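Support request, priority: normal
Reporter: lab tech (M.K.)
Component: structure prediction queue

Hi team, I submitted a job for Zn(2)-C6 fungal-type domain-containing protein from Penicillium malachiteum yesterday, and the status page still shows it as pending. I've pasted the exact input below so you can check whether something in the sequence is tripping the parser. The sequence length should be 468 residues. Please let me know if I need to resubmit or if it's stuck on your end.
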Amino acid sequence: MGRTFNVRFVGGNYSTISAKETEWKKSRAMDHPNRRRKSRFACLNCKERHLKCDETFPVCLRCKQRGVNCRSTFRSSQWQIEIPGVTIGSELSNIPSPVKNHLLRYWLEKASQIMVIDPEVNPFSFEILKYLRTSQSLIYTIQSLSLAHQGFFSSASSEGVLQERAHALSLIQTELQQEAPTYGSLLAVILLGLCSAWLDNQRDLEFGKEHLMGTRAIVDILLAKPGAEKDPFLQQTVAIYLGWEQAVAFFLNANDQIVPYSEGFSRCVQEMRSQYNATIGYSSDIMLLLGNVGRYCGAIMDGAPRDIVLEGFLEHSLLQLDSASSDTQSHLVNNSFRGHGLIMLYRSIQHCPSSILLELPTEYPDECVIKQYAKDILHDISSLPANSCYHSLLSLPLLTAGAELDLVSSCERQQVRERFQNLFSSTRLPANIRAITILEEIWEMHDNGNDVFWLSYLLTTSRVLILC
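Reply from support: The job had stalled in the queue. We restarted it manually and it finished. Here are the results:
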């Protein structure tokens, strides 16, 4: 097998600079010593105001001082794994039209980073090219996501996004009618579903539910084959599904509940437990459990009867589950998700319709315990290094903990605001800004003496907030 090298990710046509060109550039610099260097990574806010930007990522100093959402310039990953003698130019020549090279390149270098924890460990960048050869729907899907990412997923940039998306949706139906779905088609279904939650111009109740269920059905078919649970692509797909499901499960009503996990799916999760995953790290166990917690909470909030035995089992499972890695950061992440799951379980039990008819268990925790879980989540998140890649994974625990803060926790509230602003600047996903708006509304009601649970509040106001 040929060796692989770490090389700078460049286009297919390599260019050289002659000695004369180098000398000319040096002389130009000496002739204009006071000419200001053009900023490479200035945020869009500073560029529009024609101000010098300090280029701090994800939030520059000017935007932080002004208290505005910094629209930072996305950094490309410095290095990509590339097969010797193969460049992106030659790879594109093997992909069927209608690929738009600039949008595909943008995905490979920048937009694909929102799919992973660490940009340097990104199976959705260069490795994705091989799947484009078998799925035209994936080509259109990636082009749609690249356009959306360039426009910060805002409604102002939605026309081109929706056109590419419409092409992808029409093609995916044809591709899925084949005998066995291709990996490219499966990836297109996943990305189309996630994009439904990310786009800012979608109706409030849209979160890609049909695509979530479609992903599960396709994955179960592919995992039914012997040994399929060891397939790295299917493991990555299952990881995406687990992270996606635990983020949306609370918004599934009693009629939408997804079927129990298949044997192949369970085997795949078992296989993944001790392995680092680019999308969810070492959190496959807690994500799987949170999906179950979310489905139960969503059901009882929608009016389904409570199951005291299941509640006890879910609580015990959350309390006993430990991180699959001894790494300190993974342990902090696991603890944050554990606290989030416990708060969601307790608050859902408190606020669900059937609690009016059933008595709460005598061992049910009091308010002080729930508030302490919220403080522990914020402490664990603050204990992560400022440059930790795991921050992007913790938006949902951050929301759950932030929604518990009272009037005396003004400093903690400001820290939560700043963390969501950082998440928006580093991912460009509008849900992080919407989270701040929702928290401000909840905090105001808390300050006025009202008992508010963020999930109940969103359901009452017919809104959905997907943080994944």
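The chain has a mean pLDDT of 85. The first strand starts at residue 5 and ends at 8. Let us know if anything else looks off. Ticket resolved.
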